[in-house]
Amino acid sequence: MDNKRQQKFSRLIQKELGDIFQREGKAHFGSAFITVTRVEVSPDLGVARIYLSFMLAPSKQMLLEDIREKTKLIRQSLGNRIRHQARVIPELVFFLDETAEYAAKMDTLISGLNIPPAPEEDPNDDTYAKK
Predict the structure, then answer these.
(1) According to its UniProt record, where is this protein located (predicted)?
(2) For residue 74, what are the β-bridge partners?
C-alpha cells in the first residue's frame, strides 16, 4: 500500500515522463507511440518502476531495450523538469506493460465461448419449492 507521498510522486513522474516521451520521443525512438501506464515508487522514493505501453512499434522488446539504454538521458531530462519539486531524482527501471494485450486476449477468448442458453423454468416444478 503506497502512502500519499509515494502516490503524489508517482503521478508527478508519470506526467513528466509521458510529456518527455511525447515531445522528445520522436527524436530518440522514431514513430513509436510510448505511453506511461503506471509508475510505482519505492518507500524511500529512490527507485521508480515505470510500466510502458507501445503502439506503432515494430518490435516492442527492441524498443524497450533502446529505452533502457537511454535511461541516463531520460533520467537527466526528468531531473531538469522536477528538480524544484523533488529532493532526489529516482533511479528509473522500465518494464513492458502487457495489460492491454492480456485484456484483448481475454476478450477474444470470452467472445469465442459457446455458452448454451439457460433452460426455461417450469412453473409447475416443485423442485426448488420451500418445504
Answers:
(1) Cytoplasm
(2) none
